[in-house]
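Q: Structure tokens for this one, please.
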Amino acid sequence: MKKEKRNLSFKNIEVRTENNNGKRTIEGIIPYNSKSVEMWGTIEIIDKTAFNKTLKDKSEVRALFNHDDSKVLGNTLSETLILENTENGLICRCDLPNTSYANDLYEVMDRGDVKTMSFGFTPIKWIEDEKGKLRTLKECQLHEVSFGVTFPAFPKTNSQILRGLEKNNINIERLNEALDKNTFDDNDKNTIKQTVNLLNNLLNNNEAIETEPNNNTLETVNTSNIKEDTTALELQIETELMI
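A: Here is the predicted structure, written as tokens:
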């Protein structure tokens, strides 16, 4: 199985805020042995060994505002983000910078408007149950932890649409990697152009796309909804190409 970078969230993570003599800190925990929010039909559990290598190697991990890499809140290398391994989970403690977005984040979190977090990682070693619906992550490379995550998991309808796109040979992961870059190389341009062509073919396809079974029933996404979402994605891709 390929290694992929992705985000993971838990339903019951709560983040607390602290203000000591003007030094503002936010803290959350990535829980061990707890079930994650279901994504793509799979639930994941973080084993207490998952981040041992990241911590041992003192790898760089960033704290971000809602997975936005342009809004950095802290960094393990500068020790503005502290990661502490405990029996219950990985504590993530971040000293906030004096920036407008950090001030905004602290305000909404201190008011209790947002009390969730998630994190981005690459799975290295894992075990699965016989049906592949439950995965225990034994080793991960942690890249970032995000605070102020308004929607810690994709809405169901968005997940259906993305699964439908993947069934039509659109590599969502590769496309995201290309679009995340400031400049495109030839491989990135080919990926984007191929995606545009596949989207055009999808728009001309009148057959409904079936989603994965849910609770022993088979749900179907209306083709008109697929067309609207793929048209929006196509416009975004074409805009990126013009930059």
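A few notes: DSSP finds six helices and twelve strands in the chain. The helical segments are 52-56, 100-110, 156-167, 172-179, 186-203, 223-242.
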